[in-house]
Amino acid sequence: IGILVGLLSVALNSTKERAFRIICLDHMKQLQMAWLMYADDNEDHLALNKTAPGPLDKRLLGRRLSTNSWAAGNPREDRTTANIERGTLFPYLRSTEIYKCPQDSSRVAGGSGLPRVRSYSVNAYLGGDNAGLDPRVKTRLTELAQPGPDRVFVFIEEHEHSIWSSGFEVLPRDKFTLSSGSWSSTPSDRHMQGANLSFADGHVEYWRWRSPKSDNLYNRITTDSKELADLRRLQTAVPRH
Question: What is the pTM for the complete model shown?
Answer without folding.
Answer: 0.91
